């Protein structure tokens, strides 16, 4: 397999999803067709597909708005201070967060919110020292413990 090129959120209300992604999140609408839209602005394509349209056109029995989040979309920011700044910016735009940003034991500052179809979003940034627990370096070589 090659790289993941996009993430698709299945929605019950396409217009509501479009307003959310182009409004508070500030994404740019790239394509809009019956039952489908996609956006750019976060380094990967984000698509939304109406559940009934997905079912009708592909036969895939997808659902949206079930019991809790079935997907989490993570956005890496440059610094922990950027997490706080983006939290305040999105909060002022009406995005409801689970809680204010906080530090976690995995050496990151994170904040979590849900989108219009209960998809979970994470804003995060690593503290100095970066990601703990890596078993491969960025070049694909295995790291030896200790």
Gist of the model:
This protein has helices at residues 14-22, 51-58, 80-92; strands at 6-11, 28-33, 36-40, 45-50, 72-76, 102-104, 108-114, 120-126. It has 146 residues and is of the alpha/beta class.
Report what the structure shows.
The protein is of the alpha/beta class and 146 residues long. The protein has 2 domains: 1-64, 2,3-Dihydroxybiphenyl 1,2-Dioxygenase, domain 1 (Roll); 68-134, 2,3-Dihydroxybiphenyl 1,2-Dioxygenase, domain 1 (Roll). The protein is 21% helix and 31% strand. It has 3 helices and 8 strands; from the N terminus they run E-H-E-E-E-H-E-H-E-E-E. A 4-stranded mixed beta sheet has the order 1-4-3-2. The protein has a 4-stranded mixed beta sheet with strand order 5-8-7-6. The protein is globular and about 50 Å long. The model is unreliable at 142-146 (pLDDT under 50).
